[in-house]
Amino acid sequence: MAKRATREFKPLDTFTITVGQKTYTFTQEELRRAEDVFGLLRHRLRQDILTVLSESKKNEVAVSELLRILRERFPERYGFTRRNSRPLEQSVLSLHLNALLRGGYVARRRQGRYQFYQLVPERFDLVQEFLEKLQKAQPVETGTRRRRGRRRKSA
After folding, report:
1. Residues 46-63: what's their mean pLDDT?
2. What are the angstrom distances between the C-alpha of 14 and each of 8, 23, 97, 151?
3. Given 49, 90, 134, 142, which residue has the most CB atoms within 10 angstroms?
């Protein structure tokens, strides 16, 4: 039986993309970090959790209190309404809090049977660093684009 030839693909050291008049160049490490950052932050519930934690007058918020605030503040998404027959459950909230904890966006403190969460501001530096790099991208000249495909015959 003949051996099948296999190709090994080596990832590029950098990734460059031109969007409009700007060119963005990222290293593979920056892309991996961006994926970690934005992958966790793109979920709506996690965004709302971080919003509530950032606006809290206290430094930290208990899970039960966070659940109550989310249901009151966003009843159409997490409360019991005619359109939403299943309100947010504490087990679902805990899953998302654990994802944010593993990502380093929140810290947890246990006191008895209660768990308190607070933001870790240093972690958000990655988000800011990535966005600043996007803003500093160098403009490049782009040529006119040719259409591909068949040309229509003129009548």
Report:
1. 92
2. 18, 13, 33, 37
3. 49
